[in-house]
Write a structure and sequence with these properties.
Number of domains: 2
Mean pLDDT: 86
Number of strands: 5
CATH superfamily of the largest domain: Intergrase catalytic core
Strand order of the largest sheet: 1-2-5
CATH class of the largest domain: Mainly Alpha
Oligomer: single chain
Shape: globular
Helix content: 40-55%
Number of helices: 10
Low-confidence stretches: none
CATH architecture of the largest domain: Orthogonal Bundle
Amino acid sequence: MILAPSTIVFIHGILHLAMDNAILWGLVSQNVTTLASLPRVSQVEQRALTREEANKLVEAARGTRLETLLILALTTAMRRGELLGLRWDDIDFKHKTLQVRRSLGYIRKHGFVISEPKTKTSRRKIMLTDFAIEALKKHRSLQDERRGKSPSWTDMNLVFCNIHGGYWMPEHMVTMFHKLLEKAQLPRIRFHDLRHSAATLLLAMGVHPKIVQNLLGHSKISTTMDTYSHVLPSMQKEIVDKMGLVFKQEDEMEGLGTEEDAP
């Protein structure tokens, strides 16, 4: 079996930690994993959608099972597993919020796996836009209709489920997503890039990085800033422009004061 470089590095990390513990317990005298040569893990290129492209994608998804899921992905920056693990009781329609409490994954030859969110900070509350709330209400109404028509419906209270109410196979959902990209004549991107798209759009609009950090569920602000450093130049230009405007206004005010004080 040939393992991906990232998988090898992950396994090495576990073994390294185990050997460190073995040294502490006096079982071995050296951590031999430090002698291993690890493969180079290539960075996956991220591709964020522009505002126009995001609107194009949502428009292409109108009337499909992916419509509301994509709207939530682009307005909340939730991960794929978090979206597929979302339940209706996680959503507070009155206060327009949702709670990220779990993540759905799938392991070959094992099946579906429900797990805690990726990190402690990934377990978070997210404010929802009116656009997302309306989409969710429409989605729930359509789901209720399907439930009433399907004799094989399994009610698991999932927001995004398969046609029988059960867990939605992640790979199947992603296949539908890629077909929508083709329909919208957009470049082929990963589903995870929708998360990057949401964060990039917010930062580009001047939303404070700390707010974006909380939305993403990052434990450190440095993670957010490092990941989205490509947005910083445009943010810096906006700061410079605003700062220039402040001092320009002050100069104009001083000029007005001089004219009024003149005899």
